[in-house]
Design goal:
By secondary structure, this protein is mainly alpha-helical. The protein has 13 helices and 6 strands. Residues 114-216 form the XS domain.
């Protein structure tokens, strides 16, 4: 519980009621507010009780009023409890009847200092074993009106069930009230401890509140109570609760003091920062004011300079426009005077330039034409000479070819004769000599034929080299003739080139629409064959012994 108390202001017990009446008057008049909602209450004397329910605040007021606090604190809380019970009893309507009754009638310390087992417990005797299952759910349901919080069956050290059970209640005054109600209920129905000790009937279940004699009993129940509770009077419990409350209040008071000190320091720092900020704002306002004044002066001066500059610029622009118009007028007059002379001079210059260009082109074309004619003449003379040489060599080759063919025929005849001689047996030495002569003679003829073949190949190779040189020369001549331009018309026919027109005329009757493609194919084939020095268009067929 939290409350604030002033230990220095003490009141006598006689003045407590007067002070409580005064506090009650303040509460009832609204000077001190304890309720701020339908079911929300606060303690106006304790800073820690700002949001409580009715039963919590009433229990707090009753507990502090019955504690060993200062008389002023007790008087204030007694007045609060009286105010809650008298003026706000409607808030207790939502509480269970027994709880409301316990709050309205708190227990007071007994004068005889009777010892009870604390936490508050009750003993049940003759509890059937089947009702102890599941944590005594059946028993707890039967005793629900007394608000028990726990059920424990008591067993012997060897595990045998004794028939007794212990129920526990809350540790506060409401729990003590429930425990007393539990005790009085069974006592009024002759099911209390005295009734149990009188007849020990096993037909009914007996129950009573645990006290000193139960705690000190030398049986399993006493052992269970000594292990799970202590013997205390109601006054001792009240003192312990008050001590805890005082400790809590002292701790909270210390925390509140520390927080108040911290808040004071923060407030001082905040004030210092506000003062510094205020000074900074004043300095900033002063600087802004001076800045605005200076900027106003600068802008005024700049505006005057701008106006003067624009005025001078307009005057200069007008003067320049007048001079420019005068210059344009004079230029126009001069242009009209000079235009005719310039046009005539330009026309003459263009004609002269054109004539010079034409003369140069004609000279260059004539020079190139002469060079090309000279090159063609030299090439034609060279080709004629080479053609004569090739013709002579061709005639020689034909003679050599005839000689080669004649030698081949002789070789075949000698080989036939040699075969006949080999098949003649018994002819003696003459046959052998004849055979050797025949073998020697064909070999000589074969050597002679090979020599003729080599001589035949030499002109062919030379002719091929000559054709290659002629082709290179023609390419060079074509390159030199091309720059002459469209005005020159010099035609050059390459040596050995096949004409396509006869092929086209020959292919038209046979191939129709495909005549051009077929003619081009045949022309290319003949062109390739003509370039091959080893190709011969005519075949020589040998019939019998003569070709």
């Amino acid at each position: 519980m939290e409350c604030s108390s002033d230990e220095s202001s003490e009141l006598s017990d006689i003045d407590i009621h007067d002070y409580a009446d005064k506090a009650y008057t303040d509460l009832k008049s609204g000077r001190l507010v304890a309720r701020f909602g339908a079911d929300r209450f606060r303690c106006p004397f304790c800073p820690g009780k700002e949001d409580c329910r009715y039963n919590e605040l009433l229990q707090h007021a009753i507990g502090v009023g019955a504690s060993n606090h200062a008389a002023e604190v007790k008087a204030n809380h007694l007045a609060l409890a009286n105010h809650l019970k008298t003026d706000h009893a409607d808030a207790a309507g939502s509480l269970p009847p027994r709880q409301a009754e316990a709050l309205m009638n708190p227990p007071r310390p007994l004068q005889d200092q009777e010892l009870f087992v604390w936490p508050w417990m009750g003993i049940l005797a003759n509890v059937p074993v089947e009702e102890t299952q599941r944590g005594g759910a059946i028993i707890m349901q039967q005793l629900a009106g007394f608000k028990p919080i726990r059920f424990d069956a008591v067993h012997c050290p060897d595990g045998v069930y004794t028939g007794f059970a212990i129920v526990r209640f809350k540790k506060d005054w409401i729990g003590f009230k429930d425990a007393l109600g539990f005790h009085n209920y069974h006592k009024s129905h002759h099911l209390g401890k005295t009734d149990w000790e009188a007849n020990k009937c096993e037909k009914y279940m007996f129950a009573w509140l645990t006290k000193e004699e139960d705690y000190r009993a030398d049986d399993p129940v006493g052992k269970f109570l000594s292990e799970n509770g202590d013997l205390k009077t109601v006054a001792e419990v009240q003192q312990e609760m008050s001590r805890k409350t005082d400790t809590l209040i002292a701790r909270l008071t210390s925390q509140i003091s520390a927080k108040s000190k911290y808040l004071t320091e923060l407030e001082c720092k905040c004030n210092q920062m506000d003062l510094a900020l205020q000074r900074a704002m004043e300095d900033s306002d002063s600087l802004n004011q001076r800045y605005n004044e200076e900027m106003g002066k600068v802008q005024s001066t700049a505006r005057e300079h701008s106006l003067n500059f624009f005025h001078e610029t307009d005057q200069l622009r007008k003067q320049l426009d007048e001079k420019a118009n005068d210059i344009k007028r004079r230029s126009k007059q001069l242009s009209e005077i000079v235009a005719q002379t310039d046009m005539e001079r330009r026309k003459l210059e263009n004609e002269r330039t054109k004539n010079d260009g034409q003369d140069d082109s004609l000279d260059m074309a004539r020079i190139e034409q002469e060079k090309a004619n000279e090159s063609v003449r030299i090439l034609v003379e060279k080709y004629e000479k080479e053609k004569e040489v090739a013709l002579i060599e061709t005639l020689q080759l034909e003679k050599q070819l005839d000689e080669k063919r004649r030698l081949e025929l002789d070789i075949q005849q000698l080989r036939g004769k040699l075969g006949v001689v080999k098949h003649m047996d018994g002819e003696g030495v003459d046959v052998k000599k004849r055979s050797e002569e025949l073998n020697k003679d064909p070999q000589d003829r074969i050597d002679a034929a090979e020599d003729l073949e080599e001589l035949n190949q030499a002109p062919t190779i030379k002719e091929r080299m000559t054709n290659d040189e002629i082709k290179l020369e023609l390419v060079g001549l074509q390159g030199s003739v091309d720059p002459l331009g469209p005005g020159s018309n010099i035609g050059i026919r390459r040596m050995g080139q096949v004409d396509e027109k006869p092929f086209v005329e020959a292919c038209k009757p046979k191939y129709g629409a495909e005549a051009d493609a077929k003619a081009l194919e045949l022309c290319s084939m003949w062109q390739d064959n003509l370039r091959d020095a080893n190709w011969h268009p005519f075949k020589i067929a040998t019939t019998g012994e003569k070709p």
